[in-house]
Every structure is written in structure tokens, then in C-alpha cells.
Amino acid sequence: MKILERRFLITSFMMMVLLFPAIPFYDLSAEKPAASPIFGFHSYIDIDFDEEELSEPIPVDVPVAIGCTITYSTDIPENFLWFLPKGLRNLILYWRYIPIQTIHLDIEDIPEWANISFPQTNISIDIPTGNDTVRIENSLIFSLSNSAISDNPYTIKVKASCSRMGLLNGCEEIILVNFTPAWYPVLTIWVDNFTIKMKPGETMEIPIYVLNEGNGYTEVKAEIEEDYNTSILNASITPSSLQININEIGVFEIFLESSPSIRNYMATIPIEFTPYHISTGEKGLPYIIYIRVIIS
């Protein structure tokens, strides 16, 4: 009698294996499920980012990794079909002897000035049951060009998904990730001639052009590094600061006045231009140009 019962159980399970492929399941690629499953278990995916890191502006022209944790779980009971051999249990539950789930990661709405990616986009994991959870540590790599406008928040979509495996349905999780490019000051400074020839007692006003090639509205402060307001040569610059928009040119003027009693004199005047972020007051690295003045 026991032999007959055992054969009946084995035969019943084998029929289940053969019949389960005919049972309709959710089609994740469609907008609506093709049909409701008669019986099945669920997959769950969660995506978490380091909010503290994302709250800071993302530097440009350098790769930045933002920590990301992906968790995967199911509602398959831990003791489901516990009395069966593992291979037969897997065959009934997952339709394969060795079940390996794959978490696929994707990113949408990436700006054209950005390269944003995961080091791994397809991650193979064992399937947890009961209260077990698979935890995956990953990173989202941001590589922003200096054409990313600072202070403008942007949003991308991060998607994690897995496919159906037998009685275990797949799932998809989409979250919105907000980030802001950091300020990146770049100045190009020039004059028509870096060597100025003057006569004794002559005054001159020389324009200095400053092009804002950075990624944000910037205030530029100008000053002459050393004191050239002497009895031999008086030098000053106006205005002391300018607010210059992206890809626009600001014009400073250096005023020069030579002493009428001096001849055969030469001086090199260093002029420092320092960018400041208008919104935060953040200070960038200074740019220094040198103008040579010859009095003869």
C-alpha cells in the first residue's frame, strides 16, 4: 500500500510539472497582464540610494560613485514542498533544476551631457525563501561634463527588474533619482596686447576681456596683486567685480598713468581674477595674468 501511495504522489507531481507550463502568468512586457495566474509566488525588489550623497551637488569632469543598495525577496514559504528532493522541488517551483535569478538594472532619461551607469547591470543571485533577503551593494557612477548647468536639478529613472521563473512571478521597481551638477568655474582672459608701451606722463585705459566658459552664472572679482600706485606708475582696475553669465564676456579696464619724470622703466603687473558662485559664494581658483609696461 505504501508503495502505491508513493507512486501516486510521484505521478501527481510529474503531472504538475507537465501541466504548469500551460498555466497563464503575467506578461511583464505588456501594459496589462495577459491573464491572472492560477497559482504563483511574488518577487519583491527595493532600491535605496545614499540620500546624503545625492543631496550634495555632483562634481563635473570627474567620475563620482553614489552608493546603492538593492534588496530582493520572495513570498515563497521556507518549507514549501520540503518533503521532496531538492531537484524535484526546484523543477516544480522554478521549472529548472538549478534556479538562478537575474536582477537587471537600467537607467532612463540620462541627459546628453552625462554618462550615468552601473558597474554591473545584470546580477545573478540565489532565490531567497521565507524571511531571507538578498542584499546587493552597488554604485551608480556619475560622469558629468562641464556643459551640465549648475544649480539646475535633474531627474533620472532607475529601474530594477527580474523575470518570471516557473511559479515565481517577476517584478519591476522604478524610482526617481534627483541630482544637481556642481558649479565648475572656467575663465578665459585676454587683452589685445600684453606688452604696453607708454611715454612719460601718459595715461592709458586697457580693456581686459573675461569669458565665462564654466557651467554657471559667476561673479568675477579683479585686483592688482601688488601696490603699483606709486610715484612712477599708477595702476588700477575697474570695476572691481563683474557678474558674467555662461558663454558671455565681461570687460574690465586697467588704468595706467606714468610719471612725467621717468624714462627707461619697465614693470610687470600681475592681475588676479577670482570666480565666485553667485548663489553660494563658493570661491574658485584664481586666474592671474601679467601685463608688462615699458616707459621710454
Q: Could you walk me through the main structural features you see in this protein, from its secondary elements to its overall organization?
A:
The protein is mainly beta and 296 residues long. It folds into 2 domains: 23-179, Immunoglobulin-like (Sandwich); 187-295, Sandwich (Immunoglobulin-like). It is built from 3 helices and 17 strands. The protein has helices spanning 2-19, 51-55, 86-94; strands spanning 43-49, 64-74, 101-108, 114-117, 122-125, 134-144, 154-162, 171-179, 187-191, 195-198, 203-212, 218-224, 233-238, 241-244, 249-258, 265-277, 287-295. The strands form 4 sheets. A 5-stranded mixed sheet has the order 10-17-16-12-14, with no helix packed on it. A 4-stranded antiparallel sheet has the order 1-2-6-4. Strand 7 (154-162) and strand 8 form a beta hairpin.
